[in-house]
Amino acid sequence: MKHPSEPSEEPRLPAPRGPLSTAVEDHLRGTGPLPSDEEIAAAAVYGDDLQLALYLCYELHYRGFAGVAPELEWDPELLRVRGALERRFLAALRADARRHDRLDDALAGILVEPVDGTGVSHFLRDKGELWHLREYAAQRSLYHLKEADPHAWVLPRLWGRAKAAMAAVEFDEYGGGRAERVHARLFAALMTDLGLDTTYGRYLDAAPAELLVTVNQMSLFGLHRSLRGALVGHFATVEITSSPGSRRLAEAMRRTGAGPAAVHFYDEHVEADAVHEQVVRQDVIGGLLEVEPHLEADIAFGVDATVFVEDRLGDRLLADWNAGRSSLRTPLAQEFTHIS
């Protein structure tokens, strides 16, 4: 029997958010020209329009969209536009993310948990309500329903100890050979507990630009061999920060009575990612630097850029929630019935 997170058809195209995303969608439908370089240069780099246009280009390498020809994944003109979008995005990340040339310096800021943390997971643990948890899960579904896929692209670009260790971690992310333990499926079960639709891409229209930035960064790093060091830095940041953050989110799910699958997803990450952190730091990073020591600054950039985009998202969520308003572009449907 097909699991609800495993689609029988591609997701629908979302509503465009400006001239860039409108033009990309028109091209995907075969009804209009792609945006010009001048239009791309004029758009806000972290804004809804540019980030959605880039997301549309990247999604063709995952599951695509309903009614869009699969051959457009490698359409030369679309790839040219994607390249222009990527150059603006990457230049902004390099300019705006705090820079460290030494990896140890970049990692120092995330290896120690602050005594009085004020991030999203702290908020959700201490005072989050079910509606906060639902919004958080809806947004994170844009990644978690394809969890580990962007990182898998780095495997052909590694070898030796780094490749073996990365493959071992990815094997865990994909359930260790057991379909029911694939992390994307576990997240779909979490969404079910929270009364959310598990359809892939369902909440793309609702997600703000800050969330699109976090997913686009993974695809940017994953799709370019030249950014393999940054992708490893991103992955290391995720694994290092995941275990303590997941512990707080599991506590939030328990406190609010969100449901057993919701709790289980984060409990699973507390244990798994504590192990993954050591493997990534010692063997993936260590193995990569053994053979390509010149990538140290790129790995450090991946760490810095990930912290930067996650902090931007956290600031957006907390600003909205502390003001008592939704963090979503469109409100969630009131289909939640799990808890009376």
TrEMBL record:
<dbReference type="InterPro" id="IPR016084">
    <property type="entry name" value="Haem_Oase-like_multi-hlx"/>
</dbReference>
<protein>
    <submittedName>
        <fullName>Iron-containing redox enzyme family protein</fullName>
    </submittedName>
</protein>
<feature type="compositionally biased region" description="Basic and acidic residues">
    <location>
        <begin position="1"/>
        <end position="12"/>
    </location>
</feature>
<dbReference type="Pfam" id="PF14518">
    <property type="entry name" value="Haem_oxygenas_2"/>
</dbReference>
<feature type="region of interest" description="Disordered">
    <location>
        <begin position="1"/>
        <end position="33"/>
    </location>
</feature>
